[in-house]
Design a protein that fits this description.
This protein has 1 helix and 21 strands. The chain is mainly beta. A hairpin with a 2-residue loop joins strand 17 and strand 18.
Length: about 270
């Protein structure tokens, strides 16, 4: 009887030792993940560009102001990302744009039409404050021409594929401990939040200053990004049974777009 009693004590002590380890076991999200560029899907309105002689406008963008296309910095109102914008007609197939904040470049883009005018390549560079500089290349297919446009870039364009993104714009790292989650992306976006949906501060993106995170279950995370209280986007990340792959579905409330992509654990 004493042996049985002692054995029971030993087992209890052993389980007590294991309990803290089990409580602090790693989450399936913990670690660094990388986006599979080929898996990226997008559903949204076409990008509509207008070029009239010496004027440029992105009609489908949140800011629909008309700008001179002579490369001069012009005031932007209502954007958290920039306070000036410049458009420049490079040649008969290309246009460059530069957005600035407090006199410093935060975003550069070059739009180049193909020889037949049916494909548009967009090269971008993001140097926004708080973010790590990143680049991308995206291809668009023409949906419609602009009959009154004076440049081949004018018209409606549907996103066709994501060609390239710098590596830092493809990685994200998570760490979950109890009811806290820490996220850092290679592009410089980060937050430290509770997993119960309480809003926390987000850093590294001028258009997002608040984040609410919910751990729906051990494999599913929902993030609601906000700017000054207004919802900007909602993202749901689901890790599969292997723990090595995750599907991310997102909705952009501002631009009325949605999409998805797959990440793999590194």
């Amino acid at each position: 009887m004493k042996r049985i009693f002692r054995a029971a004590i030993c087992i209890s002590a052993f389980l007590a030792i294991l309990a803290p380890a089990a409580a602090s076991a790693e989450s399936v999200f913990d670690g660094t993940w990388k986006i599979d560029l080929k898996s990226m899907k997008f559903d949204g309105k076409p990008m509509v560009l207008a070029v009239r002689d010496v004027m440029y406008q992105c009609k489908s963008c949140p800011i629909k102001a008309v700008f001179k296309s002579d490369g001069s910095d012009q005031r932007v109102i209502g954007s958290p990302y920039a306070d000036t914008f410049a458009a420049h007609v490079v040649d008969k197939i290309s246009i460059e744009t530069v957005a600035k904040k407090s006199g410093k470049e935060v975003a550069w883009a070059k739009l180049t039409a193909s020889a037949d005018g049916n494909t548009l390549t967009m090269e971008t560079r993001n140097t926004s404050p708080g973010a790590t500089p990143s680049t991308s290349t995206t291809t668009f297919k023409r949906v419609a021409k602009d009959p009154s446009g004076t440049h081949v870039v004018a018209g409606s364009w549907k996103l066709a594929k994501f060609d390239n993104r710098s590596d830092n714009a493809l990685t994200v790292s998570y760490k979950i401990y109890k009811d806290n989650i820490n996220l850092n992306t290679g592009a410089g976006f980060s937050y430290n939040a509770k997993t119960n949906g309480a809003e926390a501060v987000a850093k590294g993106d001028l258009g997002i200053n608040g984040i609410a995170v919910k751990l729906l279950d051990q494999n599913t995370l929902e993030e609601t990004a906000r700017h000054n209280g207004s919802v900007i986007s909602v993202t749901k990340t689901t890790v599969d049974a292997t723990g090595k792959s995750a599907t991310v579905e997102w909705i952009d409330k501002v631009n009325e777009a949605s999409g998805s992509y797959v990440m793999t654990k590194q």
